[in-house]
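Incident review: delayed structure delivery

Summary: a single-chain prediction request sat in the queue longer than the usual turnaround. Root cause was a stuck worker, restarted by the on-call engineer. No data loss occurred. The affected request and its eventual output are reproduced below so the record is complete for anyone auditing the incident later.

Affected input:
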Amino acid sequence: MSAAAISKSFGKSIQVHLVESDDIGTIGVGEATVPHISAFNRLLEINEAEFVRQTQGTFKLGIMFKDWGKLGDSYVHGFGTIGRDLGLMPFHQYWLKARAMGGAKDLSHYSLNTVAAPQGRFMVPPSDAPPNSPLAEIAYAYHFDAGLYARYLRNLSEAQGVRRTEGKVVAIHQDPESGFVESVQLESGATVSADLFIDCSGFRAMLIEDTLHAGFEDWSEWLPCDRAVAVPCAKVGPPTPYTCSTARSAGWQWRIPLQHRTGNGYVYSSQFISDDEAAAFLLNNLDGEALGEPRPIRFTTGKRKKLWDKNVIAIGLSGGFIEPLESTAIFLIQSGISRLMSLFPHADFDEVLQNTYNAQMDFEYKKIRDFIILHYCVTTREDSDFWKYIRAMRIPDSLRAYIDLFSANGQFFREGTELFGLTSWVQVMVGQGILPKTYHPAVDWVKTSDMLGLVEHVEKVVASNVALMPKHEAFIARHCAAPTVSFKVPVRQ
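Output delivered after worker restart:
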């Protein structure tokens, strides 16, 4: 992603040299994304249908959460908007009053994405949709094979002039006085010199940590899951237009549908379940035949104290990791690249650019961290030691302030450019069982009959528009079906 974006944005004014080894696997296990990925693809002038075909992709209207607030609960965190705002007040404020009067259904009935997703319906906004129609503003992201996406971007990068060298880095050379990285030495004996180094070496963090010792902020006290096990399985039935995240006794299980298979994983805390138990549990809870052996992944949730240090910038897992509950991993890569291009240095590496970059990325990571913690901390589950620990743990003051404000009268104020806005926070807080004590007093300025009429009208409009949408699989078959892929299912002893 870094090579493709920089070479596209700067052209031949910057020489990009990509060093990577096909012998080193990536963590990519099938990926879910947030809608911002579309902006990245547009920057690269990638045709959407081609991209979906090349990556065995499907579309995503949101995430379905099962068993998070309590066993048996289910809600969808959908992209897009909730209802229609009226005056100064967002729609959910009117919904709160209507609900208190018995005149409203569950919040999910008032957003196109949260109605369409469980029905398995999807379409991109049609060009002839009226401007005020919910169909004109369908927000969506993608599921895709991360390995295929990387290969696609590699080819794109090389076509744009990126020089790629196959090889493993075995040594890093620094300037003895400044500490700046001067070159990396490959297993072949060749060296690659540069002015700026982007560390995409994953959890190894070869440059930013092993060499420059940038430091690491550990957030395990709030997000205790430290391992995952992943395995694809055979496709069974139509792919859902949403990611599914199901809370389990020691963590949670993901399900990501692609055109040719389904990605699955169990994110868990090693304090409460063994690796073998987690792998066995995952294999026993697949909806199709496993297409391989479970692959273990170990991680520590947190971020580098500096993502930009000297002439090294950490992008992706080398900079930090937040568990993939809200599909933010690729967004954080994209965000790091975008900020780098905005703050791109001259040869003097002005320190103010580095400090600004680090402050902005610190803000980005911490706001996402708090949103992820929200899914855990307001649960009422006590059916396992893991959930008992979660219920009792202290949460960051910044998150407590958001919860307390919403609990008072349904207010939420987005800070700066944080990723998740009002729609996301409202859906997850309500979905997890946080209902405000009351609503904003400005709602009373609208006649009760008009307020109830608004809520009823929104529900009907959303339902009628969803009925016009085709099934997700039919949309893919018509517009962006990938070539058929066959798998040989391994025989386990």
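Verification: The two ends are 39 Å apart (CA to CA).
Action items: add queue-age alerting; document worker restart procedure.
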